[in-house]
Write a structure and sequence with these properties.
mainly alpha; two-stranded antiparallel sheet; 6 helices; globular
Length: about 160
C-alpha cells in the first residue's frame, strides 16, 4: 500500500521514540530521513497543510465508522478494535505535526475528535497495551489511552 502523510508521521513518531533501541547506523539513517522529511514539509507548507487536512478528514470519517461498527459488533469479533485503532494513532500523529509552527490545524478537526473520544471514553475499560509490547514505550497511556485497554464488550 501507498504510504500516506499520516502513516509516515506515525512511523516517524514510533521510530523517534524507540531510536535508542536501534543500532547506531540505523539511528543515523533515521535522523537523516527525519531531517529530509522536515525540510520537505517546511518548504511546501501550504501544500502539506492541504494534503494533511484532506487526509485528516478522511481518517476521522474512517474512525467514526469504525466506532459505529464497534457499537454493533458481536463479542466474538473482538479483534476488530485492535485491528482498526491505528487510524486513531495516525490522527494523533497528524494533529501533533499540524500544531507545530509554521502549520495551522483546523479547529473543526479537534472538535470532531473530541466528540469521538468522549463517546469512546464513556465505554472504555483501561487495561493492557494492545499492540506489540516493544512499541509500548512509544505510546504512553496518558496520551494514547485508547491503546491501553479495550472498549466495553470487546474481547481482546
Amino acid at each position: 500500500p501507498k504510504l500516506t502523510i499520516g502513516g509516515c508521521l506515525m512511523r516517524q513518531h514510533r521510530l523517534g521514540q524507540l531510536h535508542h533501541r536501534l543500532p547506531p547506523v540505523l539511528q543515523e539513517r533515521l535522523q537523516a530521513a527525519t531531517q529530509k522529511l522536515g525540510d520537505l514539509m517546511s518548504s511546501n507548507v501550504v501544500r502539506f497543510e492541504q494534503k494533511t487536512h484532506q487526509e485528516l478528514h478522511a481518517r476521522l470519517s474512517e474512525w467514526m465508522k469504525c466506532l459505529g461498527s464497534l457499537s454493533r459488533q458481536a463479542e466474538d469479533e473482538g479483534c476488530f478494535y485492535a485491528d482498526k485503532v491505528d487510524a486513531r494513532v495516525v490522527i494523533t500523529a497528524m494533529i501533533d505535526q499540524m500544531q507545530q509552527t509554521p502549520f495551522r490545524l483546523e479547529q473543526q478537526v479537534l472538535n470532531e475528535l473530541k466528540i469521538l473520544d468522549s463517546n469512546l471514553q464513556q465505554r472504555w475499560n483501561s487495561g493492557d497495551f494492545m499492540w506489540l509490547s516493544v512499541w509500548e514505550e512509544a505510546y504512553p497511556a496518558k496520551k494514547y489511552w485508547y491503546l491501553h485497554g479495550k472498549p466495553q464488550g470487546v474481547i481482546q
